[in-house]
Amino acid sequence: MTVELVHLSVQSGIATITLDSPANRNALSAPLRAQLLDALERAADDSVRVVVLDHTGPAFCAGMDLTEPPEAVTELPRILETMWTYPKPVVAKLAGHARAGGIGLLAAADIAVAATHTTFAFTEVRLGVVPAVISVTVLAQLLPRAAHELFLTGETFDASRARAIGLLNSAVPADQLDAEVNRYLGMLLQGGPQALTLTKQLLRRSSEPTMAREFAAMLELSAACFASAEGQEGIRAFAEKRPASWVPAN
Length: 250
Hints:
2-enoyl-CoA Hydratase, Chain A, domain 1
C-alpha cells in the first residue's frame, strides 16, 4: 500500500498541495517527488486559479533524502522546472525550516511567505556536495553577494535575512502566517486567469530558453559530487552525526 506523502485539496479556486512526510522533515524522497509532480499536474485543472505549497511538521523541506542513492536527484530538475513554468501563480507557505533542495522549491514559487522563526541554509558544501540543481532557480532570486556568502559557508540564516536577500516576499509571526498567505491569495484571485498565466510567461521569459540546458549541466555536476569520495564521506558523516574528515579538529 502506497503511503500518501503529498495531499491535494481544491477549494474556491485554490489548490493546496501539502507535503506530509514529517518523519524525515519532508525530505525529497522518491515517493514524495513522484507524488508532488502528480499533484502539480492535477492542480493544473481549469478550475484552479492559484496553488499553495504547504507542509506539515516543523520543517518545510529538508532537501534531498540522503538515504537514497545519488542518482535520485535526477527528478528534482523536473519538479523545479514544473513549478517555475507553471501556468498558475504558486505561493510557498513556510511554517517550518528549509534546507538545500527545500530552498530550491520556495525559489521556484512566485511568492514565498514564511513565519519569522523559520531558518534556512544551503548545507551542501558541508556534505561535500554542491547546490548545483537548485542554483537554477535560487540564483534568479538571490542577491549575488548573499549567494556567494551563503552557498560557500553553509551558514544558517533567519527569515528576516531571507526576505532581505530576495528569497521571501514576506516574513511574519507564526500566528499571522495564515492571514498573510490569505492576503496574497486574495490579491491573486482578483487577477484574470489568462492575464495571470500570460504575465507569468512574461516574467519567466528570459530564463525559459536556457533552463533545460542549465538543469542538464547542473544535474551532471551534482551527480558527480554525490558520487565522489568527498561527497560519500560527507553523507556518511551526516548519517553518523560526526564531523566530516576535512573539518579541523578542535
